[in-house]
Amino acid sequence: MPNRAPPIATTRRLGARALLLGSLILTALVYLPGISGGFVFDDYANIIRNDDLRLEAVSVTGLLQAGWSGLAGPLKRPLAMMSFALNYATTGDSAAAYKLTNLVIHLVNGVLLFIFLRLILLAHGERCGRTGTNLTLVAAVAAAIWLVHPLNLTSVLYVVQRMNSLSAMFSLAAMICYCAGRRRLKTHRLGGWWFIGGGVPMFIALGLLSKENAGLTLPLIALVEVCFFRLVTARARDRKLLIALFAGALFLPGVAALIYLLADPDYLTARFASRSFTLEQRLLTEARVLWFYLSLFLVPKLSEFGLYHDDYQLSVSVLDPLSTIAALGGIVLAVVAAASLWRRYPMVPFAIGWFLIGHALEASVIPIELVHEHRNYLPLMGPIFALCYGCATGFEGHVSVALQRIFSTVIIGLCATLTVVRAGDWSDPATLAAIEAERHPNSFRAVYDLGRIQINRYQLSHDERDYNKAVLTLERSAALDVTAKRPLVALLRLEYDHGREPKPVWKVELLHRYENSLFHRSDNLDLHELVKCRAELQCAFPQNDIIKLYRAALSNPTIPSYSKAQLLIDLAVFYVNEAGNFAGAMELLDVAVALHPREFAFRKVRAEIFMMAGRYDEVDAEIRFMRSISVWADRLNSPLDIIDRLKQRLETAKRRDDGHRDRVSR
Predict the structure, then answer these.
(1) How many C-beta atoms surround the C-beta of residue 552 within 10 A?
(2) CA distance linking residue 146 with residue 422, whole number of Å
C-alpha cells in the first residue's frame, strides 16, 4: 500500500513549530555574548546592595524576607525579588547566572506568545472564514521576530528587568487561559469558565506580584475580545456574564483610583515635586516617546539604542519642540483609524490598541523617568503581530511561498544580527560604558559610568593618565546635569581615597546641589554608601564632610519626606558609630519615626540604638509596636524572625547587664 502524503495542515503546523524551535535556539545564541557582562544601574540598589537577598540557605522565612525587601512599586514585586534571592543562594553574585535566568524567562515568553497569537488567529480565522493563510506560521514568525528584536535586549541583559519579563510571562499565561476559555464558550464546550474564572485571575495576581504592569492584562483581554471574539457565545447567559465581567473589571479599578486621588489630591503633585518635569510636560513628552519607540521597532539603528535616555529632549509646551504637536496629532489619528477600521480590519485596532494600552501605565501620569527601552517588552507584541499578519495576507496569491520564506528569514536575520551586536556591547562593563558614552554623549549617567570604569582602570594600572581621564570624565558628567550629585561624590571620594586634596570648587558645588537642586531618590543611596564605606574602613571620606553633606540634603526644600526620614536614620547611625553620640542620634531618630511612624525599618534601627544605649524599656516598646505593623503597610518588611532575633538580643543584653551589676555589688 503506497505511503500517503501528510495532510497540508499537519505539514504547516510542523513547519511552524520547527521555525519556533529554531528561533528559540537562535535567540539563545544571539544573547550568549552578553551573558558575561556585569550588573548595571538599578541592579545595584535592588540586588547588589540589598542584604535581604543574600540568603545563606533557602527557607520560607528567608524568601519572604527577600520578597518584601523590594524598593520598586507599591507592591514591592515580591516574586521577582524572591527569584533574585534564589539566584544568589545558588550562584552568589554571578551576573551571568542572573542573566541566564532572564534568558530562560524570555524563551518561555516566546513560546507563550506563539500559543497566544495562534489562539487569537484561530478565533479571527473562524470568524472571517479565512482558511488559506497559514495562521500557525504567522504566529511563529511574529514570535521569532519578537524574540530576537534588539528593542527587547534590556529586558534580558539588564538583570533587574526580570520584574518586567516575569510580569509579561504571567500576563501572557492569563491571556492564553482567556482565549482557551472563550473558544469553549463559543462552541458550548465544558470548562470555559474554569479557564476564565480560575486561570485568568490567578495569573494576573502572580503578574502583579512581579510588576504592576500586569494590571493592564484585563484591558488587553478586553481588546482581544472586542477585536476577535466580538462577545459571540453559544449561550446568551455567557454573553451577559462576559459583559458584566468586563464592566466590573474595567470600571471598578477606575473608581478606586478616583477615590484614592480624591482622598489624597496631592498624590501626583507631591511626587512630581522630586522630578525635573511637570505632569503636563511628562504627558507631552511621552507622546513623542511613543513614536520614538516605534522608530526603534521599525527602523532599529544601533546609534539610537541605549541603557540610558536621560538625554531625551523634554517637551515644555505643545509647540516646543514642534514635533510634540505632530506626535499628539499622530496619536489622535491612530485612535480614529483604529475605531473606524474595527469591523473590517480588526488587526489595525488590535495593533494600535495593544501598543497604547501596553504603555498606559508608564507613559501616562505616573512620575517615573521618561524613556526606557524595556517598557516595550509587552507592547511590542501587538505591532509585530499585525505587521506579520498584514504581510502574510497581502502576499497571499501574489508572492510565491519561497519568496515569503526568504523575506521572513531576512527580517529575522537582520533583527538577530543587530541584537547579537548589542549583546556584544554588553559583554563586559568597560565595553558597555565606552559605547554608551559614545552614543549618548549628553547623558550624564552614561558619561558617569565611563568615569567609574576609568577609575577602575587606574586602580589596576596606576597610570596617572588614566587617573586624569577619570577626573575629566566625571567633571563632564557633573556639568551635563546641574542636579546630579553622584559625579561630584565620586570625584571627592577618588581624591580622598588616594591621599589628595579635592578641588574646593567641587565641595562647594556639591554642597550647593544637595541643599538647593532637585533631590533625586538616588541621592539617598550615594550618601548611604559614603556612611557604609567609612564604617567598613573602605574609604577615607572625612567625617565632617559627610555631616555637612547630610545637613545640606536635609535642608533641601524638594526632598520627599521618606527620603528625609532615611537620611535622618543614616545620620543617626553615623553619629553612634563615629562618635558614640547617642543623644544626637536619638533626636534624629525621633524626627524620622515621626515622619513615618509605621515604617518597620526605622523602628528596627531605633530599637537597636536603644539597646546599645541600655534603654531596654524603650526596646520592649519598639518590639511591641513592630509586631503590630502589617507587612502590606510598610516599605520594607516585618518578618517575625527579625523581631524574634531582636528580642533574643534584648534578653541577652539584660542578662549580661544583670550579671555585671551582681559582680559590682559583690
Answers:
(1) 18
(2) 16
CA distances 512 to 92, 522, 523, 550, 565, Å, are 40, 17, 13, 12, 21
Torsion angles phi and psi, residue 328, rounded to 5 = -60, -45
Q: Among 582, 581, 586, 583, which Cα is nearest to 568's?
A: 586
Say how far apart CA 213 and CA 67 lie, in whole Å: 18
Q: List all residues 6 or more positions away from 104 whose beta carbon is below 8 Å from its beta carbon.
A: none
User: For 410-510, where are the E strands, in sequence order?
Assistant: none
| Alpha helices, H only, 370-482 | 381-395, 401-425, 429-439, 444-461, 464-480
Q: Is 593 helix (H, G, I), strand (E, B) or coil?
A: helix
Residue 662 is predicted with a pLDDT of 58
Residue 286 has pLDDT above 60, yes or no: yes
**pLDDT of 131 higher than 80:** no
Predicted pLDDT at 206: 96
CA distance 169 to 155: 12
320 - beta bridge partners?
A: 317
Cell of 127: 470568524
Concatenate the DSSP letters of all residues of 190-240 into one string: TTHHHIIIIIHHHHHHHHHTT-GGGGGHHHHHHHHIIIIITT--SSHHHHH
**pLDDT score at 600:** 80
Stated pTM of the model = 0.89
How confident is the model at residue 10, as a pLDDT?
A: 56
Neighbour-count burial of 72, counting CB atoms closer than 10 A to its CB (0-12 exposed, 13-18 middle, 19+ buried): middle
What average pLDDT score do residues 652-658 get? Answer: 75
What are all long-range contacts of 397-401, with beta carbons under 8 Å and residues at least 24 apart? Answer: none
Contacts of 92 (CB under 8 A, 6+ apart): none
Flag whether pLDDT at 580 surpasses 50. yes
Task: Determine contact, residues 388/145, Cβ cutoff 8 Å.
Answer: yes
Retrieve residue 417's grid coordinates.
Answer: 544580527
Amino acid at 410: V
The rounded distance, in Å, linking the Cα atoms of 234 and 305 is 48
pLDDT at 637 over 50: no
